[in-house]
Amino acid sequence: MKVLILTNNDVGLYKFRKEFVQCLMSSYKVILSLPNGEYVRLFQKMGCKYIDTPFNRRGKNPLRDFSQYRTYKRIIKAESPDVILTYTIKPNIYGGLAAKACHIPFLATVTGMGTALEGGGMLARITTLLYSKGLKTASCVFFQNDTNRRFFTDKKLYTGKAVLVPGSGVNLTEHPYEEYPDEGNGINLLFIGRIMKDKGIDELLTAAEQIKQRHSNVDFTLIGQYDESYQNKVEEAQRCKNVDYLGFQSDVHSFIKNAHAVVLPSYHEGMANVLEEAAASGRPVIASSIPGCKEIFDEGISGLSCRPRDVDSLVGTIEKFIALSYEQKKAMGLAGRKKMERDFDRQKVVNAYIEEINKVIGE
Questions:
Q1: Stretch 110-122: mean pLDDT
Q2: How far apart are alpha carbons 152 and 142 in whole angstroms?
Q3: 221/313 Cα distance (integer angstroms)
Q4: Are the C-beta atoms of 179 and 334 separated by less than 8 Å?
């Protein structure tokens, strides 16, 4: 029995779903269709078959992107999978259309709304139409927060079986609780994510400048790849000693361990994996009060929220965190760990997927 996975990059699949892939391989042959990357060889070592599939993640021209449909259709015909799994917008749309054309059951995962749906205008209308076509025959769609699920059902983009999961969950073993660091050398606030507008980078850079002017003992560390033209802005912030940019890091746990809080002023998320990892490690989170972030922490108990796209709100929230006592910050971290153990264990997510796949193949 074959399972074909269509997704747009190897990093997310390995970082957040390798346990699921390993579990699949105990019963099925797993085929991966995605662009080449450094984690592909690790999947191949696990025993997965890999198909190098070029992908334009940032392309916004549906006519050009439609070539992805033809690519997926060729792959499906060549591999004859028993079931297909798709992740993120374009694989959901074009993989769904290809699965329908080839009469293969598929399960999709909506990992967030993204600019294409939330931005409005012609692009949002086209994406909405394509999504309604792409998901029409899905056996099941997994949603990572209830706001996204309701959007899809209210807009009638999908009317079939929907399963709500807590994102990808968090591996509680890989991200164990870490003792809260002392503040003798200052307070370290950590951002992990793509360096792009939708992650709230503009607001974060401005907030860092204002906070540094008032609190010389507070440091901001940024980790992640440039996804848009933010290199000059970040380099300028670094020259001014407002932030310390460390680029992409394959292992973020050691950085979380040394941080006093993880900050994510994002505009939209499916479910923010980095916040789950931070909370599992015993670190408070400072994040936007948006779906995909607010579910991960309890306000004032394991984290603090700010309004998205609002520098003043972000600055105020960071100031509020700085003013907390050491014991209050530590208690927030402990509360976050308990919440992850209770509600966000990755094994629960793996079990939900395996259950639905077995149902589809059984049928």
A1: 77
A2: 11
A3: 20
A4: no
d(CA 70, CA 32): 17
Q: What is the dihedral of CA 244, 248, 250, 254, to 10 degrees?
A: 10
Structural tokens at position 213: 């002017």
pTM of the model: 0.91
Angle between helix axes 273-280 and 326-343 (nearest 10 degrees) is: 110
CB atoms within 10 A of CB 27: 13
Task: Copy the structure tokens of residue 68.
Answer: 């992805």
**pLDDT value, residue 126:** 86
Q: What is the pLDDT of residue 122?
A: 82
**Residue-level pLDDT at 188:** 98
Give the pLDDT of residue 57.
66
**Is CATH 3.40.50.2300 what the domain over 2-169+345-362 is classified as, yes or no?**
no
Say which CATH superfamily domain 187-343 falls into.
Answer: Glycogen Phosphorylase B; (3.40.50.2000)
Domain layout of the chain by residue ranges: 2-169+345-362, 187-343
Task: Confirm if 317 and 157 have CB atoms less than 8 A apart.
Answer: no
Let me know if 79 is exposed, middle or buried by CB neighbors in 10 A (0-12, 13-18, 19+): middle
CA dist., res. 44 & res. 189, Å (int): 36
Summary count for the chain: helices (H), strands (E): 16, 13
pLDDT over 70 at 59, yes or no: no
Sheet architecture: strand order including 218-223: 244-245, 218-223, 187-192, 261-264, 285-288, 303-306
**In the chain, pLDDT over 90 holds for what percent of residues?**
88
* pLDDT score, position 363: 74
DSSP for 299-354, written as a single string:
BTTTEEEE-TT-HHHHHHHHHHHHHS-HHHHHHHHHHHHHHHHHH-BHHHHHHHHH
Between CA 54 and CA 75 the distance in angstroms is 13
**Structure confidence by residue, pLDDT tens digits, 249-296:** 989 999 999 999 999 999 999 999 999 999 999 999 999 999 999 999
